[in-house]
Predict the 3D structure of the following.
Amino acid sequence: KVIEDAEVAEQQLEMSEQKSQEVYADFVQSTTATIEADRDAIAEKSEQVAAAQAEKSETEEAQLSNTVELEELNSLLKAHHVDCDWLLQYFDIRQKARKEEMDSITDAKAVLSGAGYGK
């Protein structure tokens, strides 16, 4: 009976060992698959990060370019504003001077045509 019990116990141990090896093999296979999937995900995320950084770099360059262009346009706008202010400030004076000049030309034409002023 002891031998039978020992043989039964040995068979149970062998079955238990085999079951444990199967469970361990499944665990290793599952873990390996998970590790590979994680590596693939890391590689994909790394590519996405690199692409995003490249796009960010391009955007920053474009923004710097736009900033320079905007500063140039602001300078141009200020220059036009100063010119416009000057024109508005001296418009009446310039208009009066131009009218006087036109009147003088008209008088000069009249004198040259033979009109006598003050006779």
In short: The chain is about 95% helix and 0% strand. Residues 106 and 112 are 10 Å apart (CA to CA). The chain has a mean pLDDT of 92. The radius of gyration is 49 Å.
